[in-house]
Amino acid sequence: MAYLEAKTADLNESSISVTSCRSNAKETKIDNGVSVLAGTCRHPLRTVDLFSGCGGLTLGLHRAGHELVFAIEKDPMAFETFSANFLDSTAAYPAGNNWPTWLPKQNHDIQLLLANEMSRKRLMALKGKIDLICGGPPCQGFSVGGLRDGMDARNQLPHRYIEFVELVRPPFVLLENVEGMTRKFVSRPGHLEIPFVDWAKSRLDELGYDSDYEILDASDFGVPQVRRRVFLFGAERSRCANAGLTAKDFFRLLRGNIKAYRSHLGLPLDRKITIKEAIDDLDGTLPVTCPDSPKFQSGTYKPARSKYAKLMRRGISTQEIPNSHRFSVHTERILDFYRAVQADKIFGRLPKAYLVAHGTKKDKKVLIDPGAPASTITTHPDEFIHFRSPRNITIREMARIQSFPDDFVFKGRYTVNGDRRRHDVPRCSQVGNAVPPILAEAIGWALHQFCHGLGLSSRESRCNLNSERQTQQSVMDVR
């Protein structure tokens, strides 16, 4: 069942006035989201999701009424999850009905796709038939939580993103990545003269886009996690100029609608969502055998008390076993350590001296605070200790903190170790690398409003944003 059959009351604030920063720009009135959130979508965009992972960005845009054409994801486990939720016959969020016939519905390496001359021709033939290219290239080389290695081969993937945009030339572009993309490399090989996001912005400017970027915190939008990520948005410069709008106005719309959007979700308007609100109902006292891992135990549901938990649980009964809610197996020494941490109530990242005193070799351990949002969820569930039970948090609890609804299922291995972490994307990495769907949906509604501000009709904004709509078959059968 769709997880956002949310109430539409309390959406009666006055309209947002967006004025371009240009000296003689006209003022453009844009709906504040009342009719957009409460009614049918007026400006559904046909989208391509690059580096889609498990589909957090696709899910949010889908919930906002936009239409996925196809997605590119290299890892087979991540694409299995994507397929299970969007493409399979039993998918909870059916999408991709107009997937091109020349592109098999399977994992693809974008670098191989762009290296193939026939594929390049087919992508160029999509010009005018795709409205939005979005995605988050792998960020490990940029992340301040990692090595920030300028020579990391994955740092080339944002270049491939821009190359893809150059071939297809959609009216809108959205790129998401870690905050580290706004900083220069200064201590590792591969020094960059400017932050990578500034390079990407300059390339979009060269391609005819008006672009800008901002750092967004997912917790502002109702995600129970302090997660700061940079979003780069670009729109065709000619269209922006005609309407007196800039890319920065898109972010003004997005931020200006936060209260209306949270009201739409039924979430509190004046505070952050806490960890207890997010995952307390997943900590049932009755252990059961994990359905997809018989050698492990899983937890059960308790009644959902908070508005956030009810939002995530919509349509799922207390009798069901949560998907991907497998418990780690801990030694007695680790159990004793976790109990000590919980008794001492050292919420947040544990001090190094505390870790050493308790004989653990882990550099990072976090006791999550039930009364606050979580710190940024990473791809390592063993870094996070549950606030009540002496255990690591589960993949499902990570997913809740990322705002994935409980009917969104995860596939593939739960974790991997060693060098395989650089190559494989197990469930923990799928969740930790995703764009939170609640944030992605807010972006989706802002896209509707921005299109409205550009003066586009439904017909213009859907499919190709020009005077003649192309047939769906032409999108599917580009040869």
Task: Please name the defining characteristics of this protein.
six-stranded mixed beta sheet, alpha/beta, Rossmann fold, 13 strands, disordered N terminus, about 475 residues, globular, three-stranded mixed beta sheet, DNA Methylase, Chain A, domain 2
Query: What CATH architecture of the largest domain would you give?
Result: 3-Layer(aba) Sandwich
Number of helices: 19
Overall morphology: globular
- The parts where pLDDT drops under 50 for at least 5 residues are 1-36, 142-148, 457-479
Biggest sheet, in brief? 6 strands, mixed
Strand order of the largest sheet: 4-3-5-6-8-7
CATH topology of the largest domain: Rossmann fold
Helix share of residues? 25-40%
Structure in words:
This protein is an alpha/beta fold and 479 residues long. It folds into 2 domains: 16-269 and 435-476, Rossmann fold; 275-423, DNA Methylase, Chain A, domain 2, CATH 3.90.120. The chain is built from 19 helices and 13 strands. It has a 6-stranded mixed β-sheet with strand order 4-3-5-6-8-7, sandwiched between helices. Helix 2 crosses helix 17 and helix 9 crosses helix 17 (437-453). The protein is globular and about 65 Å long. It starts with 15 loop residues before the first strand and ends with a helix. The model is unreliable at 1-36, 142-148 and 457-479 (pLDDT under 50).
